[in-house]
Design a protein that fits this description.
Largest sheet: none
Structural class: mainly alpha
Strand content: under 5%
Helix content: over 70%
Distance between the termini: 99 Å
Shape: rod-shaped
Order of helices and strands: HHHHH
Radius of gyration: 39 Å
Number of strands: 0
């Protein structure tokens, strides 16, 4: 029994000497776990934020915006020829009429007003085309 007791004493001594090292390693492990948890929660928060952003912009709205661009580019929704035809059809004013109005009335304000009316008419037609 004497040898066994001495062996146990030696083991207890080694364990006592190792305890500070074990505690230090455990603390490091706890810190690493805490950092990992924080990073994970940060990632979840970012994902949640992205999800909210996506929900804020409905897919239909994004699709319509892309479709509108496609219509105006493909069908020539806003081409100069269409613009002139639309303004003439609506009883609007084309570029030559603009110049005449500016010369006739002798003022830039009249030309600006006519241009504003033209933009309204053209805008109205574009909305109807879409």
């Amino acid at each position: 029994m004497g040898k066994l007791c001495k062996g146990l004493q030696k083991l207890k001594e080694r364990l006592r000497k190792q305890k500070p090292r074990i505690w230090r390693l455990k603390k490091e492990l706890w810190k690493m776990k805490e950092e990992f948890r924080n990073q994970k929660s940060g990632i979840w928060r970012m994902k949640k934020g992205l999800r909210k952003l996506k929900e804020g912009l409905p897919k239909a709205k994004v699709g319509n915006m892309e479709a509108e661009e496609g219509i105006t580019e493909a069908d020539g929704g806003v081409m100069e020829a269409d613009l002139e035809e639309a303004t003439e059809a609506e009883g609007g004013v084309t570029e030559p009429h603009l110049e005449e109005a500016a010369d006739r009335e002798g003022g830039v304000t009249e030309a600006k007003e006519v241009a504003r009316k033209m933009e309204c008419v053209v805008g109205h037609n574009i909305v109807h085309q879409l």
